[in-house]
Amino acid sequence: MHRHLQKVLFGLACAVIGSASVAAPKKTVPLAGSPRAASAKASRFTFVAYGDTRSHPEVHRTIISLIVAQKPEFVLQSGDLVSDGRNPAQWDEFSEITKPLRDAHIAYYPSRGNHDVGSYYQKFVTEPFEAGGNKYYYAFTRHKNHFIVLDEFQDYDPGSAQYQWLEQELIKGQKTAVNTFVLFHESPFSVGPHGPTAEAQRYIHPLFVKYRPRAVFCGHDHLYYRTTRDGVNYLVTGGGGAPLYQPDNASLAIPGDVYVSTYHIIRCEVDGTQLKGTVITPDGKVIDTFIFKP
What we know:
The protein has one domain (2-292): Purple Acid Phosphatase, chain A, domain 2 (4-Layer Sandwich). 28% of the residues lie in helices and 25% in strands. It has helices at 2-17, 57-70, 88-97, 99-103, 119-124, 161-176, 198-211; strands at 44-50, 74-77, 107-110, 138-142, 145-149, 179-186, 215-219, 224-229, 232-237, 258-260, 265-271, 274-280, 286-292.
């Protein structure tokens, strides 16, 4: 069982190694799933963001088919890959469902959700992010675009190692990247039943206001939500297969916000400093479009 898990999940993790600016583990399994070669048009590329894939594998399968049809270079996953991160059978199922991504050489970059906590995530998903497996936050660069993935289940208050690392990565992105994008699980702003995550709002949001990433992707609430706060663009994409939530905290929305309780992905097309987003349901319906630019 453990050997099988290591093989199938490193198929996802090895995809991360291809572009991540992090140390590789002592052992890797070179399965299909590594990123395709970069396009000659380096300033234009497509990726997909989605998250919260736990609980309903049949929905996740339809979502994966939808993702493959978009032909993205890679996928961002906002956390809660499985319902119980301590259950190896769920990781087996997750790996079987996501195999079409590996077969299509679509790389997969996850953040850790609260349901993913446990030794199997450490051993079979994030080991490539740092040899030894004791950090779950990482960064990578694609086409001169900088991507930062945080872990809210390790300290991130001011003075912590992760907070200091985040600020340095944001500075790096501001100085050297065309765009910076951030991914983590629990959003500083949400209209779902979980609502805003107070610590993220208090500690992380001010850094985003200061350094202005192009977009911040989160999950945790199982719906779609788009908002711009203090000039920072937030997207909650929690419609990957978990039971859908209603916008119970809709009173927290501000003018211009969009929220829909539905399964979905976000197709993200980067063209220079512009991000064009198209939010698509499994039946192909477009429920939102947006453009973020300086």
